[in-house]
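Example record used in the benchmark description.
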Amino acid sequence: MNYLITGRNGQLAQAFIKRFEKQSISFIAPDEAHLDITDYNCVFDAVTVHRPDVIINCAAYNNVDKAEQDMITAFAVNATGPKHLARAAAQQKALLVHFGSDYVFDGVKENGLYVESDEVHPLNEYGKSKLAGERHVLEELDRSLILRLSWVFGKGKQNFIYKLSEWAKNNEYLKIACDEFSVPTYTDTVVNITLKAIEQGLTGRYHLTNSGFCSRYEWAKVILGGLGIKKFIRPVPMDIFNLPAKRPKFSAMSNAKIGKLLKSNIPSWEEAVTSFLREGISS
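Model output (structure tokens):
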């Protein structure tokens, strides 16, 4: 099995690269200069040359607030890019693994976690771009695996755990939203379940998160406790931050469907955070 990974420098791509290197799995992960997914010719050439069996798309525009003004770039990376990859994958007869987001939901569901059949209604441009990417993949390619993620953390600096640790160094106390809920999801969990899904020939759209859910405030308490940092955290409504992009207040997704199909007991978010902190948060 030969893999092609996009978005080489991101925390999720790095987690796949680390696993593939450890297990001596054949892969190539070109840098963006050699694989710009917004350029179809670039994508087509890379897929034609490397002839992957599986393309894992870890490339994404993840700056939720900046996407409100930079919609062109957000849609180019999150929507048009996956379309290019799907079209090239179809020609190569490769499987495309594409990662979606919990931000395709509006947060108004009141009777449980979001499941795959729930209606989508993104509140911001980032969420709209991610939903468009999902739809393009499904339109262009019969053989795809779309995995919606939430609150992803892993090695690197583009995640809440690293940012919180930095805020704690520079502030006397912290204000963290207590009314924003989702599921912290460890890159190692994503890699484990994704590779198992590929191995078992799974296709379609699924929610892939760690188990359970929490507020940002609850997550922050677990993080600082795990790091041994004593810092007062004040729970506040997220509206006080006046962020450019509107966010769903509750976007926690259920991983029950993929867990059942793969016969996998997916670790809780608390277990995942503890495991990650034990290894160290530095990149």
